[in-house]
Amino acid sequence: MAEGHSYSYVTTATLSGDTWARVQPLLESWKPVLQDLPGYAGSDVMARTTGNGALRMHVRVTWLTREQLEEFADCRWETERMIAATGAEPGDMRSETFEHFI
């Protein structure tokens, strides 16, 4: 694999509207915490309604090195842990890592 510019940890999940009301403020307050971690390069939270009252969300956290991403994945601030801390239990929550090339 070629040398990448950065590395992202992407979490996707479907939440009920009530659950999103608990998760959204947490994610907003979470960003300043991430900004203090070594190698943090940025983050995005994207969401859309699914038509049945649920909300599909994608959370991307980008790191300068693979090692920093791996440290994040193991720390208490990791995305799935933060969402679980709200009591949310999305059945389809999934996290993956990606390397940026362009």
Q: Can you characterise this structure?
A:
It is a single chain. With 102 residues, the protein is an alpha+beta fold. The chain has one domain (6-100): 2-Layer Sandwich (Alpha-Beta Plaits), CATH 3.30.70.100. Helix content is 33%, strand content 37%. The chain has 3 helices and 4 strands. It has helices at residues 17-35, 66-74, 79-84, and strands spanning 6-16, 40-49, 54-63, 94-100. β2 (40-49) and β3 form a beta hairpin. The longest helix is centred in the N-terminal third of the chain and has 19 residues, at 17-35. The protein is globular. 19% of the residues are buried.
How many helical elements? 3
Q: Trace the largest sheet across and list its strands.
A: 2-3-1-4
The helix content, as a percent range, equals: 25-40%
Question: Which class of secondary structure composition applies to the elements?
Answer: alpha+beta
The global form is: globular
List SSEs in N-to-C order: EHEEHHE
According to CATH, what is the topology?
Answer: Alpha-Beta Plaits
The CATH class label is: Alpha Beta
Q: End-to-end distance, in Å? A: 13 Å
Strand content: 35-45%
Report the sheet with the most strands, covering strand number, pairing sense and barrel closure. Answer: 4 strands, antiparallel
Overall average pLDDT:
92
Weakly predicted, low-confidence segments = none
Q: Measured on Cα atoms, how large is the radius of gyration?
A: 14 Å
Question: Total domains, how many?
Answer: 1
For the record, the CATH architecture stands as: 2-Layer Sandwich
Strand elements, count: 4
